């Protein structure tokens, strides 16, 4: 049985969205049509110029960190407030993302009078405990006044920190998600402080939903058209909301699927498209379980296979629970593709990568087996000696693999890396 938008106007979209979010684990306020943010404002004494529920965050920081208690939490929160002060939204978003995902450095006074630097977590990302240890709130009509006043339709907070901002429209009232995207752009310009901690925005109408990273231009607001079995629904809107915005996926995207790309005119934040996200998690699942050492990822032209490989590589290299000390290869079959991927890697500022500059260099990299990403062309495998694999956890991702894997070069690759995962 499908569940359509309750009534075909903006308020109906809002109530339906909150109901769907409630169904996947968010503590929601405003489903009855009232202004849900007022409930949290009163509970946590938020002033209208604040974008974070600081009292809620303080409670959670104490719960999540042994080093923080009621005696030093105010000092920590005061320090954290300053991290929202930025003249440039994307610079601030990048820096705050580091705090959200890696913790904030803080000096804690010890019993002997000395101080010790610790990293304080704002969010528990452990999949085993995250849903229990974090607080997930979805509220409507969250009003912020800083020179001007904005009131997005729905906001998602984790431990009081705003991660997702949603703007909703109704096609029956001659507005659609394009108008919602325009409003979100206005909000980012008028009150950028709300978006400094933000992960992504959602624009929706009575028929369709689009999402985009904070700062994304209109053409980079994308649909979310797939879902795991538990979130499949005949109502595409409900499926998109629950598959994209369930708490587990939001935390996974925040922790493991954000890139900042250096571009002329300023950095750009990148979050994955649905096919990239699910493909990467399939790759990670196969490597983690060790049950299958091969897989085919099918992409249509323009669907972003380069970023699929880069997200997979970054996750493999940074998540020891999946792969302890892996060596990851991205293999292309033309110098042009190699050059494009090299530039992409440089612009994303990934740390653990190198490029094989020659056949001899490639062989040395394989023999040494250092845990890093290696970019190479398939042609460099032509004279690599067989069976020189120096790392027992090697994952290979071949771009346009159908063009060479059944030929002699594919055999050379298999001989050089006989014990690898290959996607």
SSE diagram, text form:
Blueprint: H1 10-23, E1 27-29, H2 37-44, H3 54-64, H4 73-82, H5 89-102, E2 104-109, E3 115-120, H6 130-133, E4 136-140, E5 144-146, E6 148-150, E7 154-158, E8 161-168, H7 177-190, E9 200-204, E10 209-213, H8 236-245, H9 247-256, E11 259-261, E12 268-270, H10 274-289, H11 305-318, E13 327-332, H12 335-348, E14 353-355, H13 359-368, E15 373-377, E16 394-398, H14 408-416, E17 420-422
Parallel strand pairs: 1-4, 8-9, 13-15, 13-16, 14-15, 16-17
Antiparallel strand pairs: 2-3, 4-7, 5-6, 7-8, 9-10, 11-12
Give a verbal description of the structure.
- The chain is of the alpha/beta class and 423 residues long.
- The protein has helices spanning 10-23, 37-44, 54-64, 73-82, 89-102, 130-133, 177-190, 236-245, 247-256, 274-289, 305-318, 335-348, 359-368, 408-416; strands spanning 27-29, 104-109, 115-120, 136-140, 144-146, 148-150, 154-158, 161-168, 200-204, 209-213, 259-261, 268-270, 327-332, 353-355, 373-377, 394-398, 420-422.
- The strands form 5 sheets. A 6-stranded mixed β-sheet has the order 1-4-7-8-9-10, with helices on both faces.
- α10 (274-289) crosses α11.
């Amino acid at each position: 049985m499908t569940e359509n938008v309750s009534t075909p106007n903006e308020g109906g979209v809002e109530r339906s969205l909150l109901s769907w979010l409630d169904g996947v684990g968010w503590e929601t306020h405003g489903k009855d049509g009232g202004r849900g943010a007022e409930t949290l404002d009163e509970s946590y004494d938020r002033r209208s110029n604040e974008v974070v529920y600081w009292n809620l965050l303080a409670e959670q920081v104490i719960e999540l960190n042994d080093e923080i208690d009621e005696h030093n939490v105010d000092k920590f929160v005061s320090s954290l407030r300053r991290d929202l002060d930025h003249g440039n939204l994307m610079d601030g978003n990048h820096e705050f993302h580091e705090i959200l995902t890696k913790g904030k450095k803080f000096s804690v006074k010890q019993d002997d009078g000395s101080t010790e630097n610790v990293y304080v977590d704002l969010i528990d990302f452990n999949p085993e405990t995250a849903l229990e240890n974090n607080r997930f709130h979805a509220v409507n009509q969250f009003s912020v006044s800083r020179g001007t006043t904005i009131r997005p339709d729905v906001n998602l907070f984790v431990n009081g920190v705003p991660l997702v901002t949603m703007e909703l429209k109704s096609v029956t009232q001659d507005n659609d998600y394009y108008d919602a995207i325009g409003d979100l752009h206005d909000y980012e310009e008028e009150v950028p402080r709300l978006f400094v901690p933000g992960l992504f925005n959602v624009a929706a109408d009575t028929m369709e939903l689009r999402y985009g990273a904070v700062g994304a231009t209109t053409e980079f607001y994308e649909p979310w058209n797939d879902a795991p079995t538990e979130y499949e629904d005949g109502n595409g809107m409900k499926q998109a909301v629950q598959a994209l915005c369930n708490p587990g996926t939001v935390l996974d995207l925040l922790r493991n699927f954000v890139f900042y790309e250096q571009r002329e005119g300023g950095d750009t934040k990148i979050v994955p498209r649905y096919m990239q996200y699910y493909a990467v998690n399939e790759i990670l699942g196969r490597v983690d379980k060790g049950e299958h050492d091969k897989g085919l990822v099918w992409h249509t032209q323009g669907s972003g296979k380069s970023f699929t490989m880069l997200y997979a590589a970054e996750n493999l290299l940074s998540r020891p629970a999946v792969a302890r000390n892996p060596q990851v290869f991205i293999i292309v079959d033309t110098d042009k593709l190699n050059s494009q991927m090299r530039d992409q890697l440089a612009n994303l500022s990934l740390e653990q990568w190198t490029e094989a500059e020659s056949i001899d260099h490639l062989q040395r990299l394989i023999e040494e087996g250092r845990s890093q990403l290696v970019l190479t062309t398939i042609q460099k495998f032509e004279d690599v000696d067989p069976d020189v694999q120096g790392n027992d956890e090697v994952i290979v991702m071949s771009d346009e693999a159908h063009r060479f894997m059944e030929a002699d070069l594919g055999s050379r690759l298999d001989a050089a890396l006989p014990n690898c995962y290959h996607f």
